[in-house]
Give the backbone structure.
Amino acid sequence: MKVVLLISFFTLGFFGFYTSYPHVIQWGTERKINPNPNQFVHSKKPNHRTRQVVLPNPDFLYSIAFYDLRRGPITILGEVPKGTPYFSVAFYQANTSNYRVIDQAEFPDGKLAITLYPKGEESSSGTFGVASPTLTGTLLLRYIWKDTSDLERIARNQQSLSILMP
Amino acid sequence: MRKFWLPAFLLFFGGIGAGFFSLVLTSQVKAPVGHSHWLTNSDIGTRGESIFSRALVARVGLYGLPKTEVWYFITQRDSRGILLEAGKRYQVRGIAPDCAFWSITLYDETLFLTENSKGEYHFNGHKLGVRKGETYAFVIDSQPSAEPWLPAPPKGPIVLCFRMYKPARTRLAERLLPKITPL
């Protein structure tokens, strides 16, 4: 019995580490990029000094926000880039797991309007609704660029982004 | 009582240590594709991923996208299975895949972009001027080259990541992946 209990302490430490590791990484990433929730931070063209997240993709400009739904749903507004081969809004729960990706095909009018609400609560805003499994998480927008002429246009798209809070 | 709690605490922290070292030692994302040395992990970005896979992705591919959006492949080895090393010269040759966008990016062993005089870190179909189904080739070298050239740092291990965004409904096959040949 004592041996079984001792082994269970080892198992608890082992699985506890694996379960908490993504949360620690998420916490550290938030602290590094922007500790204030529900605010977008826009990246410049990734280069060798880009060190916030491993494997930065130089094809993309990123806009990232760490959301907090404890005070209620939030609405993400902005413009979708036109004629781009790829643009997406990806949603990650508090343990860094992706639970939804929306790409440009879902916004044919070029207007981004998404209400993010806690799972179990209904969205009543009339905008595109996404249910978050956790009260906190990450929103990551990816803008692909091909020529340097795209950078200015994408910067305008990024500046158009806003988060409305209750 | 103390005879129980002391080893219990030691084993608890031993478990944390074992978890940490097993994660650090698992330096690769899962399965190789066919007989190639390109590795992929189909669990990235899926809700069904295990706690082990999620921790690994948080370490080596934080905020990855699911395979419906992008296929990720990563390699530290050339086509013969020998570790890629900056300072050597390699040719990367393949067929442009059927997808919305694709790219091949060079990283250092810490999985960050490498400093170089050209300020270039990757090639994609647009930069190489190839359409789907066409053959492309470029070289990786620390020294400038007349051919399409991806600059590598002067020394140290290097890693390549191949990304295919919105891949066509084709089966994942080795033929889609570029060959890396030392020159």
Residues 33-164 of chain A form a domain with the Immunoglobulin-like fold (CATH 2.60.40.1610). Chain A has one domain: 33-164. Chain A has two helices and nine strands. Residues 46 and 56 of chain A are 7 Å apart (CA to CA).
